[in-house]
Amino acid sequence: MFRTRFTEMFGVEHPVVCGGMTAVGTADLVAPVAEAGALGFLAALTQPTPEALAKEIARCRTMTDKPFGVNLTILPTLNPVPYEEYRQAIIEGRVSVVETAGANPAPHLPAFKAAGVKVIHKAVAVRHALKAQQLGVDAVSVDGFECAGHPGEDDIPGLVLLPLAARALHIPIVASGGFADGAGLVAALALGADAINMGTRFVATTEAPVHDAVKQQIVANSERDTVLVFRQFRNTARVARNAVSEEILELSARADATFADIAHLASGTRGRENVLAGGDVDAGMWWAGQSQGLIDDVASCREVIDRIVDEAELIIRQRLAATLA
């Protein structure tokens, strides 16, 4: 068993996190993660209204009595999002921890702090993590270049980013991007992190509420089967390599390209309905990290978490101990 600042602060058995994932972070996935001793996050904005989020929190509580959190991603949108109402649903749902991402979490911190809710903020650079620490968050999740989703524009991999963050910060660090096995957990701890965050690995679990074709595609894919889209618009995102993401790259490469040229391809609705629900892995854009290359099977959340922890302990006790003999 690993005891770290993270496990102590958040009251979980293992230093493993299932971060909030749009259309994936529901009680069906988060409750089994919690039952296996890790910390999972419901995705607030996957729920269409704050009232729906309140019901999803309550549903998760019927499935586990162990700690779980809610992810609140704060991004500019065409249609205003009632973030204050989502925040209130989290507080009234007696959720103990929130994962914030996207924009500055400062407007939400006073209310969360007053309610005793701990906050983990996702950052893609040391300077952003330092700012979050100054604002008073309880921990930071540091995303390396390998991650699915938005890795920022600096292209710094975890091997460099994590020890730099550990030098600069005094609050717990969650290592994110490229993690899928026990060796990754050991490496993250050695680099100064207190836990690992996984997204792609948890998509390829039996409980994840996505079509099995997506899970099997993750298993089949290698570490080379992702692409970086939206780079020209300074909103870089790592997604699975497929027909749609390749078309986005082609259209974006034109000198006069605008986001309007690719918006129909990048539609979140298209990815959710056609890919995650429908199972056509070439019919929309979907998120995946380079950790695909480390994923060899679709397993239950408990099997994934137990395997990672057991492998990490074995590496420390045998392989690393032998090098010191």
UniProtKB/TrEMBL annotation:
The entry's keywords: Dioxygenase, Flavoprotein, FMN, Oxidoreductase
InterPro entries attached to this UniProt entry: Aldolase_TIM, NMO
UniProt GO MF annotations: dioxygenase activity; nitronate monooxygenase activity
Listed name of the protein: 2-nitropropane dioxygenase
Organism, as annotated: Nocardioides scoriae
